[in-house]
Amino acid sequence: MVFGFGRADLEQVSAAEAISLSAGSARLIDVREPWEFEAGHAPQATNVPMSQLDARLDELSKDDTLLIVCHSGQRSQSVTGRLDHAGFSAVNVIGGMLDWVAAGGGIVASDDRTPHV
Description:
Layout: E1 12-13, H1 15-22, E2 27-30, H2 34-39, E3 46-47, H3 53-56, E4 65-69, H4 74-85, E5 89-93, H5 96-102
Parallel strand pairs: 1-5, 2-3, 2-4, 4-5
Helix pairs in contact: 1-5
């Protein structure tokens, strides 16, 4: 069952499932702001901040399965709904990067500091 935003029909996966899927053919899209992404993100993630989504839709392919992740799952759920409505195959990562790290997913920082979410 999807939480919030009144969309019980959006596809969702746990962070553990997303870790596995992102190692395959699915594309991980991190919708946090650049400063959040730079502090700690999954190595395979592409940063497309929620605030820039409409301007950057051309960077996403409707042929890809897009795993949408944020800090805790709220922004990613909203973005998943927007992408789904626009015809993309978007899947919300429940619990966001907090659950990603708790499930053993790796993170890196954009510089030489210790990564964190």
